[in-house]
Amino acid sequence: MSKRKPAQKKKTPAIQWGVIAGAAALIVVVLLLKTYRSDLVGLAVSQDEVEPTLPVVETAVPLQSTPAVAETTVPPAQPTPALLPEAHLDQLLAAGEPVFIFFHSNTCVQCVRMTEIVEDVYPEFSDSVALVDVNVYDERNRSLLQRANIRAIPTLIFINREGEAQGQIGVMEPDALREQLQALAEE
Description:
The protein is an alpha+beta fold. It has one domain: Glutaredoxin. It is built from five helices and four strands, in the order H-H-E-H-E-H-E-E-H. The chain has helices spanning 14-39, 85-95, 109-121, 142-148, 174-186; strands at residues 99-104, 130-135, 155-159, 165-169. A four-stranded mixed beta sheet has the order 2-1-3-4, sandwiched between helices. The model is unreliable at 36-62 and 64-80 (pLDDT under 50).
């Protein structure tokens, strides 16, 4: 009588599992990058303006104007009502003014550092470049965040007189911010 060997499970070699896992990871990364890039439509970033570890936004589509909306907390006696950042931006774009838009929060470490840099550098350019300061946690700014597809902070967007936008995600060193604002002021 012959001895019957117990049925053996067919084992998939570790190499095959490694290849499958690697391919799946690659697919996930590609999909995330595609989604991230499509989420940032409306901004443009030059490759040499972004730190290598930061995501790059590559598009030349400027932010489109929408009707201005005044804040409701402005006293009626004031001759010109204070505008929400989005309405302020729309006015500046319509006037063809160079604009520096600063998207941030008051709690993230990089945002706090970038706020200090902006407060130090921007006053030199306040007469020639308009600043639109946008706190991403203020619910009144939700429309502008969606319009600009902001997904990471701090985000800095520079729009020249022709409405062409360039941006950066992350902290920008003071000298680099100064150079960018100087270029906007001179255009």
